[in-house]
Amino acid sequence: MENWQKIKDIFADAIEQPADLRAEFLRAKCDGDNLLFDEVSSLLAASGDFENLIEKNAFDLSSVVGCRVEDYRERHFGKYRIIREIGSGGMGSVFLAERDDGEFTMQVALKIVRQSIADREIISRFRRERQILAGLSHPNIAALHDGGVSEKGEPYLAMEYVDGQTLIDYSVEHNLSIDKKLRLFLKICAAVSYAHRHLVVHRDIKPSNILVTEDREPKLLDFGLAKAFESDSSKTQTALRAFTPAYASPEQIKGGNITTSSDIYSLGVVFYELLTGTKPLNFDNKSFDEIVQTIGGTEPLKPSAVETELKPAHTAQILRGDLDNIALTALRKEPERRFKTVDDFADDIERHLNGRPITARPNTAGYLAGKFIRRNKIAVAAAAFVLLSLVVGLIFSLWQADRVRKERDRAEKRFQDVRQLSNSLLFEISPKIERLPGSVEAREILVKRALEYLDSLSEESQYDQSLRAELASAYEKVGNLQGNIDRPNLSDFAGAVTSFEKARAIRESLPLDSENQYRLALNVSLTSSIRNRQNDVKGSLTDAGLANAIFIDLTSTIPDSIEYKTSAIEAEIEYGQIYSMNNRFAEAVPRFRGALAALARIDNNQIKTRQLTAKGYAFLGNALSWDGNQPDAETEIKKAIIISESLAADYPDDSEIQATVWQTFTLASSVYEDTQPSFSLDLAKRALTIAERAAGADKADSQARYNVGRAFSRLGIMFSKSQKLSQAETNLQESEKIFNELIVKEPKNVIYQRDLGKLYVRMGDTSEKQQNPADALLKYQNSALIFEKIADGDGLNTLALRDLAQSLKSVGAMQIALKQKAEAIKTLEKAKQILANLKAANSIGGFDKQLIEEVETLLRSF
Amino acid sequence: MRLRSNKMSAGKKDEITLLLGRISDGSDTAPGKLLELVYDDLRRLAGAYMQNERSDHTLQATALVHEAYLRLVDWKNVSWQSRAQFFSVAAEVMRKVLIDHARARKAQKRDGHRLVLDEAISLPDHRQIDMIALDDALQNLEKIDPRQAKIVELRFFGGLTIEETAYILKLSESAVRREWTFAKAWFQRELSQTDGR
Predict the structure, then answer these.
(1) How many CA atoms lie within 13 A of A619 on its CB side?
(2) HSE on the CB side for A40, CA within 13 Å?
(3) How many CB atoms lie within 10 A of CB B27?
(4) What are the strands, taking DSSP E only, across B10-165?
């Protein structure tokens, strides 16, 4: 159905319209297309059917499976008659029900607990808790009217029926301003505070438990129920109940004591999500144990620093300061450091609304330093403080204030010591070991320690400009160690981007003098390269463009600085390489040529200039070759080889230089693959020697290991070309092993995946030569799957798409060889379509035009 | 939740957990193997639910799939992504189980076997649904819009919530909600057309 997407779009718009306006709306949208009109109107009509067939899940349809299952409809629970189901979850179902005992009628939400959960112990606890909950009466708490246990033993609760939307849905749909959100949140606080005063802890505060009615009254549901139904296996419950325990406090997730402070934390998560549209911590792809660790150890970003598409640009400004501090205070890991009561939390929000100073403070020096002192005594004292303050609040807090003051004086000194230490680690020790092969492990420890210091310092640095500049440099340093691919690095690209972004945020807030501007440009340029490694093509190109703009501005203001100029050229080369890696050679080649011309003008024979020149020629040759311009490609890459050879001889122990040399040889081997196979093989062997040496020197250096894998694969390719098929197979398998190893280690690094995909193409080629089309088909299919996955991850990734088309062509050819005609046509048509799309997007090189022809020739063979 | 005695060997649990890991790493054979491996267990579990072993118990795919997960997977040690994979496969199995069941019943009727007693108390007419027709419709949808079909499979057969579905398919909740609203209308229309004829 070609119109499918259109039908879907119009349907989605139409269903948003009031029912009586839909027909008119539809007519306008369909613009005389009667078929379309009929199609959508019949769907709209069907959507209005009272009981939708697939609304319930398959197992609830007892008539389908022909067995008797419990049918709640028609059943009575005490005085209540069920009307319809309104929700279900891990514990049981919720129904809309009506009280009809003749006294009066009232609608309630009837919660029925699944029998399998309700064992004897739970039922008795449930009865105890019910007494307490029934005593709660507050306008913003959904009241518990009644409850009991049915004759069949299912516990049930009759609660106030609230017709409303969940908090987040409501605020998004009504596009609430920050101000209105805060006022809404205050009402929620009032409800929780009321419950706390009645000694009831909610334990499961989350947006889906907070409904907002038409007249903007929030109502909290399920107060204390989590406790009422708690079983011994509370962790199992967590697994059953929530997909991610996003709102659980550290003490809750660790199975510690749950107090009113746990509710404050959960409220903090809700507060954060309400303001920023995202949750403070990210649990994607984390195992349960990792989530426990994250909740216990990772500090959330400040709300103002959160980037979301939903958030209007000026929001960050509103959030910065007060609201940041309020949110982070509620979300502190240690219960005793959060707001002491919900009222304190609410108070600060009110102060903020009234423009008065708030009490929540960023982490203080006293606290940070305290972390380095033995904290046990303080922790005990603080815990005791929470308890005692309920009884003798005033006296105790005076004592505490005095204690804090003394501690603070001592802490200030500690703070300065820490600052000095982290500076020394990063700027004195790190450069000394950076260029030594084999130092990755040491740097890993260094990075970890430094980040710990930095994150704690950055909280404190808000008002100290020189400290902030220092911090930005430090974060960048760490980012380099984590993932600057031009140096030995830890291949922690995600971590690197985070570090660079932290630094960028700081730099942007500092005065833009030339030094800061320069650092900012370097930062953005590096972030761009790293993003490219992560398959974030769009982000990568945006950053590259931005870096370029900053550099142009900088080098035109200060034209004499060689350092600025060199860096600007390096950024330009990286920019070109991103285009080249994404198959956009027409945009890549001029950048390389421009950079090389600028390098020629500098002409100072410095190591950096020489290195960049080698790199520029190597990338240029590579791009030209892919673009189908073989003669020029060879001319340019030849220059890269000559410079690289002399660099290798001049700096045998410099791992950065060796990496560049390896890169030149590898790219050159590929360029000469068809025209000079024996030279190409020789280059591949030299690349392997360099890579193995570096990898041997530094076992933890993923980049070095990767280079070895690439070198093996190049060797395999060249053996395959020269018909030495068993040697080819051995080398390719060696390479496959390494890539797989690396992918396990860094599943998100798309470079490894891409190379594995390419490797499978080569393995397929080899199998094909061994007259084994079935095996070749398998290998090609493997490669197609990998490229498909990469392209899926980023629709902009034209390179992955062209790789996919190439794999599909080979798959198709094998299917023809194996007489799978129908499949072959399907495969080849798909390849053709992808190539046509690429062509339409103007994203195709000369090499690919040949590919298009090959696909068409194959298709014509039918 | 009280489970019946856990007969499954530790080895199998390990194997399932391992397969989930391999799916996350992009292995293309692992999903099929996983399906094979958990099919029997899920079918048995579903059978137990269906045969009314626990008479005073509402039958829900949600509970069943969650229970299966806790029983079959070393869930403390797998990532949330693997968990999502499991639910995705489970929904597929559930679909198969139910369709097989519906076909078997149809055949039974045709062969003149006695009708199951409890059919007498089936739900009011408008809740009747022809599972086989539904599966046909779903197969059609798979061809037109595989993603939407997957959403239906996860929601209808896996009993997953909008939130969980969004998580598994890496879509926003609003996108899933939009697709689901459309899918509901589409099925409603397709199936009532079939009924009419």
Answers:
(1) 31
(2) 27
(3) 15
(4) none
Q: Cα A437 vs. chain centroid, distance in angstroms?
A: 32
For helices A440-460 and A365-372, the axis angle rounded to 10 degrees is 150
How far is residue A649 CA from its own chain's centroid?
A: 43
Q: Chain B residue with minimal CA distance to A151?
A: B56
CB-CB contact of A665 with A687 (8 Å): yes
Nearest to B54 among A63, A115, A782 (CB): A115
- A107 bridge partner residues: A98
Chain A residues in contact with B175 by the CB 8 A cut-off are none
| Least Cα separation, residue A193 to chain B (angstroms) | 29
The amino acid at residue A346 is A
**Which residue type is seen at A226?**
A
Q: Is pLDDT of A399 > 60? A: no
A684 vs A710: CA distance, rounded Å: 9
The tokens of A114 are what?
A: 């699944």
Contact yes or no for A310/A264 (Cβ under 8 A): no
Structure tokens at B21: 């890991």
Q: Do A43 and B186 touch (CB under 8 A)?
A: yes
User: Residue B189 and residue A71: Cβ atoms within 8 Å?
Assistant: no
Residues of A in contact with B2 (CB under 8 A): 116, 119
When comparing pLDDT for A854 and A700, which is higher? A854
What is the C-alpha to C-alpha distance for residues A332 and A334, in angstroms, rounded to an integer? 6
Residues 6+ apart with CB under 8 A from B181: A12, A15, A47
H or E stretch including A403? Answer: helix A376-423
Distances (CA, A) of B188 to A43, B14, B138, B195: 8, 42, 12, 10
Cα–Cα distance between B158 and A450 in angstroms, integer? 46
Contacts of A424 (CB under 8 A, 6+ apart): none
Amino acid occupying residue B14: D
On chain A, the residues whose CB falls within 8 A of the CB of B153 are none
pLDDT one-digit tens code per residue, B3-29? 333 444 456 777 777 777 777 676 777
pTM of the model: 0.43
User: Which of A451 and A524 is assigned the larger pLDDT?
Assistant: A524
Amino acid identity of residue A290, one-letter, is E
Residue B108: exposed, middle, or buried by beta-carbon count in 10 A (0-12, 13-18, 19+)?
Answer: middle
- Residue A210, SS3? strand
DSSP tally for chain B: helices H, then strands E? 8, 0
Do the Cβ atoms of B37 and B12 come closer than 8 Å? yes
What is the DSSP secondary structure assignment for residue B155, as one 8-state letter? I
Quick one: pLDDT band at residue A464, thresholds 50, 70, 90? Answer: low
Which of A90, A239, A287 lies closest to B79 in CB terms? A287
The nearest CA of chain A is from the CA of B9 a distance in Å of 20
Two structure tokens written together for A759: 């490797």
Phi, psi (deg, nearest 5) at residue B119? -60, -25
Provide ipTM, 2 decimals: 0.76
Tokens of B89: 């496969």
The phi and psi torsions of A816 (rounded to 5 degrees) equal -65, -45
Highest mean pLDDT among A307-311, A757-761, A845-849, B8-12: A757-761
* A2–chain B Cβ distance below 8 A for any pair: no
**Residues A790, A800 contacting (CB under 8 angstroms):** yes
Residues in chain A with CB shorter than 8 Å from the CB of B98 are: 58-59, 64-65
Q: How far is A172 from chain B (nearest CA, A)?
A: 11
**A180/A629 Cα distance (integer angstroms):** 62
- Whole-angstrom CA distances from A539 to A458, A534, A536, A588, A796 are 26, 10, 5, 17, 10
Question: Which one of A54, A92, A283 has the shortest CB-CB distance to B152?
Answer: A54
Name the 3-class secondary structure at A180: helix
Q: What angle do CA A312, A314, A317 make, to 5 degrees?
A: 130
